């Protein structure tokens, strides 16, 4: 269920305040063909949904800022015949009610109405860095010229990116969003616990995925991304999604999963022993990753810089690898040379919200944006020892471990939204005995 219309009205007002003048055009996503006449399930565009709460395809939001501020939604009309084939539509009135826009028009009238809405506008806020929309808008300006017998806006137009402004807004989550993100995180954490209990040698990766799918759909949630269920050396492939191997006794399995609830994502990883007990080597690597993750989470608080947390995780991981002979040399030198990147090659985390890799991810990673209350982000260090890495002892090869939590930055620190899934060795082993 979307939020109340007042929330979307308020967000549009804030956007109009930021643009101050001009017109913003925010379309929803297009439907994607999976194969022939079979589509992927439709997922609205996150920016569009953020501003409307309207989840049907073929819709465009237009916001006019300034003295006569107003918002206009173009969407599909109700059509009994079409609906019999393709499902219920809210129609113009329903869409207006959900989103709280001032005006609604059928999407079929977009080309007719847009020239009039663009008339006298100097600044156009586009959906991202898109040339497709610039072309369409230029054509609408030509239509104005034809209709008026003269050009009302010079050919160039002043085109800006509306997403940049929306990214700033999406970075700090509102209480309603936090509540959904918390629920999504809990569903994912509990689903992971169920998968841990269902795990034993001989079970297939896809069977553990099936456990998740069952848990997610029971809560009316869907995958936020293709889940990773990676047994043994498959965990060393960062985006492994085949999930088609049998789980072997003595190996670990890495699960990186997240459900999406009402378009809000979650993201959690746990790595656990397939037979329920960590081996000596697995324990050693696991403890290094956990130490890095816990140390970083401890420092998730307002004012801290996420890039510093990344650097701290790098230091802990590099020191651990040196201690156990996987890296040789002096700590500072190895950090400077980025020697750790053979084992820890991704960043410490990203923002989570309407998208799994949400607005602000780049800014927090680069350290341009310090942590602020209301941000939601992941902390996810890992160590991956490639199965063919001849520079390390055989006993380490093929171990891949990532530990990931989604956390909310609070006024005084953080709340771990995915805390329901254990990550200490003894707690994992205890859960797997149940
Ligand atoms: N599951 C995607 C990520 O961890 O970033
Ligand atoms: Mn993840
Ligand atoms: Mn992640």
Please tag this protein with its features:
single chain; 434 residues; alpha+beta; Creatine Amidinohydrolase, Chain A, domain 1; Creatine Amidinohydrolase; 2 domains; 6-stranded mixed β-sheet; 3-stranded antiparallel β-sheet; elongated; binds glycine; binds manganese (II) ion
Write structural notes for this entry.
The chain has 434 residues and is α+β, with helices and mostly antiparallel strands. It folds into two domains: 5-170, Creatinase/prolidase N-terminal domain (Creatine Amidinohydrolase, Chain A, domain 1), CATH 3.40.350.10; 175-433, Creatinase/methionine aminopeptidase superfamily (Creatine Amidinohydrolase). 39% of the residues lie in helices and 17% in strands. It is built from 14 helices and 19 strands. The chain has helices at residues 5-19, 46-52, 80-86, 91-99, 110-118, 131-148, 162-171, 175-198, 205-218, 280-298, 306-323, 331-336, 361-366, 425-433; strands at 23-27, 33-35, 38-39, 60-64, 70-75, 103-106, 123-126, 158-161, 222-223, 228-231, 252-257, 259-261, 264-265, 268-273, 376-379, 382-384, 400-402, 405-409, 414-416. Strands 6-5-4-1-7-8 form a six-stranded mixed sheet, sandwiched between helices. A three-stranded antiparallel sheet has the order 9-12-13. A three-stranded antiparallel sheet has the order 10-11-14. Helix 10 runs antiparallel to helix 11. The longest helix has 24 residues, at 175-198. 42% of the residues are buried. The model has no long low-confidence stretch (mean pLDDT 96). The structure holds glycine (GLY) and manganese (II) ion (2 copies). Glycine (GLY) binds at residues 225, 256, 267, 350, 356, 380, 404. Belongs to the peptidase M24B family. Its cofactor is Mn(2+). Residues 3-135 form the Aminopeptidase P N-terminal domain. GO terms for molecular function: manganese ion binding; metalloaminopeptidase activity.
